[in-house]
Every structure is written in C-alpha cells, then in structure tokens.
Amino acid sequence: MRLVSFTRPDGTASYGTTDGTTIHDAGAVLPYADLRAVLAAGATGELAGKGTALAMSDVTLLSPVPNPDKILCIGLNYMSHIKETGRDKPAYPSIFNRYPSSILGHNVPLVRPKVSKEFDYEGELAVVIGRTCRHVAEADAWDVVAGYSCFNDGSVRDFQRHTSQFWPGKSFEASGSMGPWLITPDEVGDITQQTLITRINGKVEQQAGIDDLALSIPEIIAYASTVITLLPGDIIATGTPGGVGKFRDPQLYLEPGMTAEIEITGVGTLVNGVVDEA
C-alpha cells in the first residue's frame, strides 16, 4: 500500500491510502489520530480503500509521517559520496538529527533561507520504523520496517560548516522534504535492488543503487536501536550518493524557480520547487 498524510481542502489534517491520483480519506472513518498512531497500533491493513475518495490534486500532501518522535539522518553513507568528499568508509554510522518542522511534503516548495545562498540538495531513501524496538539484531532488522519513502535532506552548507556539528545546516525550517507517500515493503520487494535518482530542473545530478550504501539498512537499525528505543513512525534517512551541489565544479545550489526531484525506483518520485524565505 501507499500511505499518505495530507490536509483536506478545508485545512484539516488526515491520512489514508492512494493509487497515485486518488486518495481515500481513511482518517475520516477510522479512530486513529494520525498515521503514526496507525503504525503504533499495527493497523495499516485497516486503511485499504477506507474513506471518501479525494483527488490528490485537491489536497496538500504532508510528509507521510509529519509528527515522528525522531528523524535520524545518516551522513556519508554512499561510497560514491564518501569518495567525492575524500574520506574513508566509516566504521559506524554518522548520525545527526532533523526536526519535523524542517520537512515538507510532495509538491510543496522548499524554502531557501534568507541568510544563505548555499542551499544544497541530497536525495535519500527514508526508512520508517513500524514497531517499538530496542537492541535489534541485524538479522531481524527488516522485520521492524514499516515502509520506505523518498527524502530530500536539504542542506544549508555554510551553516553546516560553522562547527563540526551538522545540526545548523540540516535544521532550517521547510528546507527538506519527504514523500510522496510511505510505501509498504511488500509493494517494493528487495529495496537494495532499487535505484536512487536526483534530478535538478530535469537533469540527473545523482544516481546510485541502494546497494552502494556503505553501511546497510540492517546495520543502521541495529546500531541506532542499541543507543535508543526506536518507535513507530521514526524516520531514518539513510544518506545521499555522490553528486551533491557542493562538490560540483561549478557548484550547483538550489535557487528560487528550480525544481528538485528525488526518484527511487519501486518507491516513487518526490518533487519540490524552491522559493526564497519571505
């Protein structure tokens, strides 16, 4: 299934399922407050076909899980990106946090902050956790995955370089995105056999197989769950391939009027325009 969170034409929030053009408003008929609550209840199977049909064009898509307990992002985790930065393969995941206020949905414009012109794109695969778990063994990690989504880890590079901590450059409001939906693993098959492609204004700037990850999805889940309890709806953005704007010559940064597309085969395509902060 493809699970979505959205705001209705009247501005109220809901969730449901989609075929890519029509959304069934399951939130109007089911007792769960939001998609995170659906995941926590293990009730995704209840959503199929439930609720009034709405045209996707009539709603505003949110990040599929707009209110996660945490968003964990993995830095330097594709071999092609590690090579372009001149670094070595990491022994452990490099983890930093983003906040829900920094993440928008599909077809909602990213906001370039007024304090910087170094607004970069990072196409990524997002993994969403489906149940509460701690100390997950690598062999069991796939069992805690609720689904996958496309993720743009929009990065303000000069703020990212201010210190050794990534947080400032990764936390500007409305600078990143996720979507267009959360797709369940049974719809995708082997996610490691899929390909991630980032297009800026229609031109391919990043392309890599998910199997180019330096540290695998089970390794990341096992490591993160050793440190902290993972909860339903938690998001893990698994890293970006080579080809980010900072390391191009000339550099390529997002500007108002541009369009960023993150496609993952078998998952979907996340599209966002770019506007300047008011």
Question: Could you characterize what this model shows?
Answer:
The protein has about 280 residues and is mainly beta. The protein has 2 domains: about 1-60, no CATH class; about 70-275, Alpha-Beta Complex (Fumarylacetoacetate hydrolase, domain 2), CATH 3.90.850. It contains 6 helices and 19 strands. The protein has helices at about 35-40, 80-85, 155-160, 165-170, 185-190, 215-225; strands at about 1-5, 15-20, 20-25, 55, 60, 70-75, 95-100, 105, 110, 120, 125-130, 145-150, 155, 175-185, 195-200, 205-210, 235, 260-265, 270-275. The strands form 3 sheets. Strands 1, 2, 3, 4, 5, 6, 7, 8, 11, 12, 14 and 17 form a 12-stranded mixed β-sheet that branches. It has a 5-stranded mixed β-sheet with strand order 9-19-18-15-16, with no helix packed on it. Strands 10-13 form a two-stranded antiparallel ribbon. Strand 18 (about 260-265) and strand 19 (about 270-275) form a beta hairpin. It starts with a strand and ends with a strand. The relative contact order is 0.21. The model has no long low-confidence stretch (mean pLDDT about 95).
